[in-house]
Amino acid sequence: MTPTELEELNKNLKILHEAIAAGGIENGYKFVLFSVPIVGIVFGCTLLFFLFYWNHKEKIELIRSNLYKPVFFDIRMLSFFVGLLLTFTGFALSVVFIVVLGKSLAMLGGLVPLAIGLGLLTYYKLRP
After folding, report:
1. Three-state DSSP string of the chain
2. Is residue 88 a part of any domain in this protein?
3. End-to-end CA gap in the chain
4. What confidence category does residue 22 fall into, taking pLDDT thresholds of 50, 70 and 90?
5. Total domain count for the chain?
6. What is the Cα–Cα distance from 50 to 56, expressed in whole angstroms?
7. pTM of the model
8. Same domain flag for 21 and 59
9. pLDDT category, 16, cuts 50, 70, 90?
């Protein structure tokens, strides 16, 4: 960290400390309230990074020891089942939104999954 960056960081920390001290308890909870999601996101991303990293290392070691068996993954069947799920969910949501709210932008909450589901079913049908 350069001296300029360190000076800027100290200045920002001093401003933050003065703001918390001046506001008392009323502003102190806001700092905690806003820092909790940030800390959660940072720790969650760190956890995911290490999970993927360790999974990768495990596969590399299995390949080196000739014990690795590739997982069979059928993208066609996945697109069929997810397409069915999204199509019927989107259809049901569209009907409910049209009945309850009439023609409005809320219909998109049902039309978007319906369109994605129909696209996946089309992919399933057209793929050899």
Report:
1. CCHHHHHHHHHHHHHHHHHHHHHCHHHHHHHHHHHHHHHHHHHHHHHHHHHHHHHHHHHHHHHHCCCCCCCCCCHHHHHHHHHHHHHHHHHHHHHHHHHHHCCCHHHHHHHHHHHHHHHHHHHHHHCC
2. yes
3. 57
4. confident
5. 2
6. 10
7. 0.53
8. yes
9. confident
